[in-house]
Specification:
By secondary structure, the chain is α/β, with parallel strands linked by helices. The protein is 39% helix and 23% strand. The strands form two sheets. Strands 1, 2, 3, 4, 5, 14, 15, 16 and 17 form a nine-stranded mixed sheet that branches. Strand 8, helix 5 and strand 9 form a beta-alpha-beta unit. Helix 3 crosses helix 4, helix 12 crosses helix 13 and helix 13 packs across helix 15. The protein is globular and about 65 Å long.
Length: 434
C-alpha cells in the first residue's frame, strides 16, 4: 500500500529554529515516509514501483506537516465535558469529577475514548499520551480507530485496585499493535501516598515501563508536599527514583530553580497544558525559561473537563500567547517553537525523536494535510505564523497514521457519528442518574 501526495506545501519541522516549507511530492510506502521529492525527479520511479497499489492525491493548496502529538490527556473524560465548570480545582475534583468517575464502567471508558479519539483525529492529532483507569479499553479503541497512543494506567490513593491488572493487560494489548505503548501513571505526588508511589515504581521496574504523571500543578500541591515531606513536589518524586526512569510530567507550573535543574538533568519531558492551567487558575508554567535552560517542553490538552476540547491548535496558540503575557515580551515562544512543542518536542519526550513529529524520509508516516482555502488562511505571508495563530482543528482535511488514511475530507473513516452521539447521550444520562 502506497500513498502519494503531489505538490504539497511541505513543512518538515526538521530545522531547529524556523520552518521553510517546500513544494514537494511526498511518498509513503507501508508505514514509512520514503520520498520527499522537491524537484519531481524521483516521483515517476515511485509511481512505477507502486503502480499496483497506489493512492495518488493532488495536495495542491494544502500544507503537509507532521501529525500533532497531544502528550497529556484523559480521553474518556469527554463523557464529562462541560459537566462541572468554573469551580476551584480541589472542589472540582472532590465534589464533582471523582464521584462521577467512580461510577464509570469499562463500556463508558471505551465510549468516552471513542469520542475523544474521533475529536483528536479530526483535529490532526496522530499520537496521544493518555492517563486514566481501565486504559486497556482506551488502547483497544486506539487500535480500532487507527491512532497512535501511549496509554498510562493510573493509580491514586483509594483507587489502587485494578491498577496492576490494567498495566498487565495494557502490556498484553501493546504486544498486538506497534501503535500502542504503555507507561505507568502515578496520579500526582499529593494524591498518592509514599507507599503507593513506591509500589508504582516497583511496577515500572518489574515491567520495564516509563512514567507519566501530574507534577507541581498548583500552589496547594507545593504547600501540601512541603508540609508532608519538607521539599518540593519535583524533589520528592525525584527522591523516590521516578525521574531516573524516562518520565513525562504534566503541568510543572510551580517550579524552583532547583526543580528546573532536576528536570533538565533527569531529561524529564515536561508537558505544558496552558488551557487547563488557565481554566483551573493554576498559573502560568515557566515554559520559555524551561526551554532556555534546555528542558524539553511538549504540549497537551489535559482532559476535556479542564479545557474543554482536545484541540491542539487552540493549545499551541494559548501556549504562545500566555508566555508573551507572563513574560511581558512578545518575542518569547515564537510560532515555530509552539509548533515544535506539538510535534518534535512531543516525539522527543517519548524517546521517539527522528521517528515521529517530523516529515522526513525514513520517519513513520504520521502526517496531516491542512486545507488553506478558508478566509483565515489569506493572505499567506508566513505559513508557520498562520498555522499557529489562525489554524483550527476543522482545517485538517486528511490524516495519515502509520501509513493509513484515517481521516478523509475532514471525517474519521468508517465512524458512524450518529450512532456514536446517540450512545454517548444514553451513557451520560445513565451516569448522571445513578
Ligand atoms: Zn491531567
Amino acid at each position: 500500500m502506497a500513498l502519494l501526495f503531489r505538490n504539497a506545501t511541505t513543512l518538515t519541522m526538521t530545522a531547529p529554529t524556523e520552518g521553510h516549507p517546500l513544494r514537494a511530492n511526498v511518498g509513503i510506502e507501508g508505514n514509512r515516509i520514503t520520498m520527499i521529492d522537491a524537484t519531481g525527479e524521483r516521483t515517476a520511479e515511485f509511481v512505477k514501483r507502486n503502480a499496483d497499489n497506489l493512492t495518488d492525491i493532488d495536495a495542491q493548496g494544502q500544507i503537509l506537516m507532521p501529525g500533532l502529538i497531544n502528550l497529556h490527556t484523559h480521553a474518556a473524560m469527554t463523557l464529562m465535558r462541560s459537566y462541572a465548570d468554573d469551580i476551584p480545582l480541589m472542589t472540582w475534583l472532590n465534589d464533582h469529577i471523582w464521584p462521577l468517575e467512580a461510577k464509570l464502567t469499562t463500556d463508558d471508558i471505551t465510549l468516552g475514548a471513542r469520542l475523544g479519539i474521533a475529536e483528536m483525529l479530526e483535529g490532526g492529532t496522530t499520537t496521544f499520551a493518555d492517563m486514566y483507569w481501565d486504559e486497556a479499553a482506551v488502547a483497544r479503541q486506539a487500535i480500532e480507530m487507527g491512532i497512535r497512543t501511549v496509554v498510562s494506567p493510573c493509580f491514586v490513593d483509594g483507587r489502587m485496585e485494578g491498577f496492576e491488572s490494567d498495566v498487565v493487560e495494557c502490556v498484553t494489548v501493546a504486544k498486538e499493535c506497534d501503535r500502542v505503548s504503555v507507561r505507568v501513571a502515578p496520579h500526582a505526588p499529593y494524591s498518592c501516598s509514599k507507599a503507593n508511589l513506591q509500589r508504582g515504581l516497583e511496577v515500572c521496574r518489574e515491567l520495564n515501563l516509563a512514567v507519566h504523571l501530574h507534577l507541581s500543578e498548583t500552589d496547594d500541591e507545593v504547600a501540601q508536599i512541603a508540609a508532608k515531606y519538607g521539599c518540593t513536589p519535583v524533589e520528592f518524586i525525584d527522591s523516590l527514583g521516578y525521574l531516573d526512569l524516562p518520565a513525562i510530567a504534566a503541568h510543572c507550573v510551580k517550579l524552583t530553580d532547583r526543580d528546573i535543574q532536576i528536570l533538565r538533568d533527569k531529561k524529564v519531558g515536561v508537558v505544558h497544558n496552558p488551557q487547563s492551567n488557565m481554566k483551573l487558575s493554576s498559573g502560568t508554567a515557566p515554559v520559555w525559561r524551561l526551554q532556555q535552560e534546555g528542558v524539553s517542553v511538549a504540549l497537551g490538552t489535559d482532559g476535556t473537563c479542564s479545557n474543554n476540547d482536545l484541540d491542539m491548535w487552540d493549545e499551541m496558540r494559548s501556549a504562545a500567547l500566555l508566555q508573551k503575557v507572563s513574560g511581558n515580551d512578545p518575542t518569547v515562544l515564537p510560532a515555530y517553537q509552539a509548533l515544535r512543542m506539538a510535534t518534535v518536542e512531543g516525539a522527543k519526550a517519548l524517546g521517539r525523536e527522528g521517528e515521529l513529529g517530523i516529515v522526513a524520509e525514513g520517519a513513520l508516516a504520521d502526517i496531516i494535510l491542512v486545507d488553506t482555502s478558508r478566509p483565515h488562511f489569506h493572505p499567506l505571508h508566513d505559513i508557520v505564523s498562520t498555522l499557529v495563530y489562525c489554524g483550527k482543528a476543522a482545517d485538517v482535511k486528511t490524516v495519515v497514521v502509520d501509513g493509513r488514511i484515517v481521516v478523509s475530507d475532514g471525517v474519521v473513516v468508517g465512524l458512524n457519528y450518529t450512532e456514536l452521539y446517540t450512545e454517548v447521550d444514553q451513557h451520560v444520562a445513565r451516569l448522571i442518574r445513578k
